[in-house]
Amino acid sequence: DTWINLTSAPASGFGAAIYSQDGGAGIFTPVAVYLSTGMHVILYASSNNSSWDVHGGTDVCDATSALSTGSWHHFALVRSGNNWMVFIDGTQCGTTQVASGALFDS
Are 6 and 15 in contact (CB under 8 A)? Predict the structure, then answer.
């Protein structure tokens, strides 16, 4: 989990990284979470460090109404077994995502 405070909505593409480890070119980190231009949360997850095989960059929730600029928001990505959920300020955003596979352990 983390706290985020957006100064503006993302301008293009995957404009704001909420969480990501930079593994360098061609390296797939265990988990990456981005906020796209439409204020949508995008989730990636890898078990093998060479592809997004656990979760492949799916739009998991529309955070337009949950996130406002200039305010602090609590963001949590929760995994319970094969169920992945995003919570913003304690409320689940979007639907539970189902994806199986162990995450890459670097």
Answer: no
Q: Is 38 left (phi over 0), alpha (psi -120 to 50) or beta?
A: alpha
The encoded tokens of residue 69 equal 């600029």
Average pLDDT over residues 72-87: 89
**Residue 94 burial (10 A CB sphere; 0-12, 13-18, 19+):** buried
Residue 75: pLDDT band with limits 50, 70, 90: very high
- The structure's pTM equals 0.79
Beta carbons of 75 and 18 less than 8 angstroms apart: yes
| Helix, strand, coil share of the chain (percent; to 5) | 0, 45, 55
Cα-Cα-Cα-Cα dihedral of 98, 102, 104, 106, to 10°? 130
pLDDT at 26: 63
